[in-house]
Amino acid sequence: MHLELHHLDVFSLEETPERLFDLSLQRDMLRAETIYSLVSKAIVRNRPRATGHPGFSSSIISGLAQGSGEYFTRLGVSTLPRYLYMVLDTGSDVVWVQGSPYSSGCNKRRKCLYQVSYSDSSVTFGDFSTETLTFRITKVGRVVLDCGHDNEGLFVGAAGLLGLGRGRLSVPTQARHRFNRKSSYYLVDRSVSSKSSSMIFGDAPIPQTTVFTPLLTNPKLDTFYYVELLEISIGGTRVRGITPSLFKMDPASNGGVIIDSGTSVTRLTRPAYIAMRDAFRIRASNLKRVPDFSLFDTCFDLSGKTSVKVPTIVLHFRGADVSLPATNYLKQRNLLLCFGGYHEWFVHYWKHSATKFPGGF
């Protein structure tokens, strides 16, 4: 069974593309800082870990039109469901919905208060409850969720948040016996309205173009999904100076690479980014460089050009090589074409093209 996924930005019709991009970068910076903080704190304190049924699925839509880099899914809440758009988040565990007026069940079981703060300063406060969630036509009962009565911040266009992390309160963990502990999401280019994204729980046909890489676990932080990034190629050549050691998680749980559905911009450690940027500049020597623009430290002048050739980029994961479309690592603004950013910035919206590299929960 499948559900369609919709990006949040499809709801925002008044913002310009430049404004949407700027807002996305601001949210990304705050979110990345919070993820780094959580991982750092987890190194000195362990967190407890959570110790066949037919599958089900959910549709996904882009949040681009609402000024958000996140994706939405539409779910029914309560036994007689009200259908709500909820933000997908693989970087958190808690499921919450606005308690009133969306879900009558939320207002009847006031037993335990909760409060969750997010990296962009958004916050939700309310009561714990249990509810039935409807994924298209499949009902999953007794899901522990939070009924928010005070939701503030950048929950643009959303009536709640679907926590898809690996912690004990996330949907994948709570419903793992319903779908044989298997789930995945497929995200297509959010600017292509003719193609749909989906989130699948349980067994489902796998596209022939799919490639796989193992998911790693941080023993001191159970929420995040880690993957093993080994090397990066520019223009068909492995970048000198980028080695697996730059991305490896050490025995103390430092380092590692996190896959996060709520972050739009990929970040690398400074040595990896500098090596990659310099290799890109050499390969793009046929283009005229211009001064830096905003976050971007490698920009080119497109005056008088109808088309340009740019170096290809391939991310080499364990067992999976992912080639990125140029639109995922180059940002065009008027007559400027810019690559990357500075320090730990790299790749604009690369994860949204990962139809050949589906994430797994």
UniProtKB/TrEMBL annotation:
Where the record annotates domain Peptidase A1, the positions are: 71-361
**Looking at the Swiss-Prot or TrEMBL record, what is one Pfam family this protein matches?**
TAXi_N
Q: Which InterPro entries match?
A: Aspartic_peptidase_AS, PEPTIDASE_A1, Peptidase_aspartic_dom_sf, Plant_Aspart_Prot_A1, TAXi_C, TAXi_N
Extract the Gene3D superfamilies matched here: Acid Proteases
Q: Does the keyword Protease apply?
A: yes
Entry keyword set: Hydrolase, Protease
Is the keyword Disulfide bond in the record?
A: no
GO MF, any single term: aspartic-type endopeptidase activity
PROSITE patterns listed in its UniProt record = ASP_PROTEASE (PS00141), PEPTIDASE_A1 (PS51767)
Give the GO biological process terms: proteolysis
PANTHER family hit by this protein: OS07G0603500 PROTEIN-RELATED, PROTEIN ASPARTIC PROTEASE IN GUARD CELL 1-LIKE
Its family?
A: Belongs to the peptidase A1 family.
The identity of this protein, by name, is: Peptidase A1 domain-containing protein
- Tell me what organism the protein belongs to: Gossypium darwinii (Darwin's cotton)
